[in-house]
Amino acid sequence: MKRLGLTCLCIAAVWTMPALAGEVNTGYFGNVAIEGYDTVAYFTEKRAVKGSEKFQSEWLGATWQFSSDENRKKFDASPMDYAPQYGGLCSEGVAFNEMTVNIEPEVWQIIDGKLYLSAGAGFEDLAANRPKADANWPAVHAELQK
């Protein structure tokens, strides 16, 4: 029984290793940031909008998709203004030193002009957890680079 538990733990560790294209979370399949959602739309339309292969850009080794050419151009002009924090990993996960790749693109917040994504149905308390995530991000980022 002990061996089965260890085997399950090892399998879980492998399945939780994130797929990153350069510096950006692209999930486990493909090379598309934010599961193809338009990162500019979070700011301009205040909602999650699925992007299109018709309007896409490459940045930091990932493909970013947009719902319009206008949004693609905005992103291309200033990607750091629109890119999600913590490389697109779950913000709360980073607060607890986790590298949660499977985000829910429709669960998000913009705080102080920055986009934060979550892997859960909602944010537990991003306002309280954000300072922890900011403090943990350098170590999490370094681990991702290994």
Task: Explain what the structure shows.
- The model is unreliable at 1-18 (pLDDT under 50).
- A hairpin with a 2-residue loop joins strand 5 and strand 6.
- With 146 residues, this protein is an alpha+beta fold.
- The longest helix is centred in the C-terminal third of the chain and has 19 residues, at 126-144.
- The chain is built from six helices and six strands, in the order αββαββαααββα.
Choose one word for the global shape: globular
- The fraction of residues assigned to DSSP E strands is 15-25%
Poorly predicted runs of 5 or more residues:
1-18
Mean pLDDT: 84
What summary fits the major beta sheet? 2 strands, antiparallel
Strand line-up of the largest beta sheet: 1-2
Distance between the termini: 32 Å
Order of H and E elements: HEEHEEHHHEEH
Tell me roughly what share of residues is in helical segments.
25-40%
Q: How many helix segments?
A: 6
